[in-house]
Amino acid sequence: QVQLQASGPGLVKPSQTLSLTCTVSGGSITTSYYAWSWIRQPPGKGLEWMGVIHYDGSTYYSPSLKSRTSISRDTSKNQFSLQLSSETPEDTAVYYCYSDYVLVGSWGQGTQVTVSS
Question: What confidence score (pLDDT) does residue 80 get?
Fold first, then answer.
């Protein structure tokens, strides 16, 4: 089973772009049928799926975040990344990376991101 480790800045200023990276071990991000997602949970709220990059590099985004979200990958480092632009305090959340392989999921440990000046 794969292991995922999210990393990135804990504090982002409003209007800046958040960049997070998920490092994957125990398997390749290009292995067929794997899907690699970003999910977040604002304080006191439920989980929000943000987007996914598939093993073949195809991406899909939540309609509500599509205009501000980009997910990419670095196959040489076995990593995938999230960029979320035009940050506001409402983007404060714990951000998780998540893998899905034929309905078997694995979660990273989550990383807290606070948007504040």
Answer: 98
